[in-house]
Design brief:
Elements (H helix, E strand, L loop, with lengths): L5 H10 L9 E4 L4 H10 L3 E4 L4 H13 L5
Parallel strand pairs: 1-2
């Protein structure tokens, strides 16, 4: 994202009535628990650091789309 950070986008989506309950998965090159904590506190449903395991990513997406862990 160039004009808006991912965290700002997550907060904006969570504050809008039509998008506040959709699952939001942050995929970032930033690593470390600090950034993941910030993303989750902003409202992210899940967080993946690049590179990531595609099978784990797919499983998490399926789970979120089923509503088991959505925000």
């Amino acid at each position: 994202l160039t004009k808006m950070s991912g965290i700002v986008l997550v907060k904006a989506l969570r504050s809008h009535p039509s998008t506040k309950t959709i699952p939001i998965v942050v995929v970032s090159g930033r690593t470390g628990p600090g950034y993941m904590d910030i993303a989750v506190k902003a409202g992210a449903s899940d967080y993946f650091s690049k590179p990531f395991d595609i099978m784990a990513f797919t499983d998490r997406l399926r789970s979120l789309l089923r509503g088991a862990g959505g925000h």
